[in-house]
Design goal:
The protein is mainly α. The chain is 72% helix and 7% strand. The protein is built from 4 helices and 2 strands.
Length: 86
């Protein structure tokens, strides 16, 4: 599991869809889709119920959501602390 995969997972969850997340992050839809699909494969669960326009979280996705927020927040906090220690 990579930090970037979690960041993209959060972007999809927050945006409500893969296309919306891709536009918000200025990256391709396929990049977002591949990262989330890879994360799902690694974890062995579906994280989103996909329709043509939206992506809603599954129960597993809901469980990952708060954990992913904490992990990404902690990683960002480490970066901030190290930047100020220069």
């Amino acid at each position: 599991m990579e930090l970037e995969q979690l960041r993209l997972f959060l972007a999809v969850a927050d945006s409500g869809g893969f296309s919306q997340a891709a536009r918000r992050l200025y990256i391709s839809h396929s990049t977002v889709s591949r990262a989330v699909s890879s994360l799902e494969e690694e974890l062995g669960v579906r994280l989103f119920e996909r329709t043509n326009r939206t992506a809603g979280l599954t129960d597993a996705g809901e469980l990952l959501l708060s954990e992913a927020r904490g992990i990404v927040s902690a990683a960002d906090g480490i970066k901030d602390k190290l930047s100020s220690a220069k």
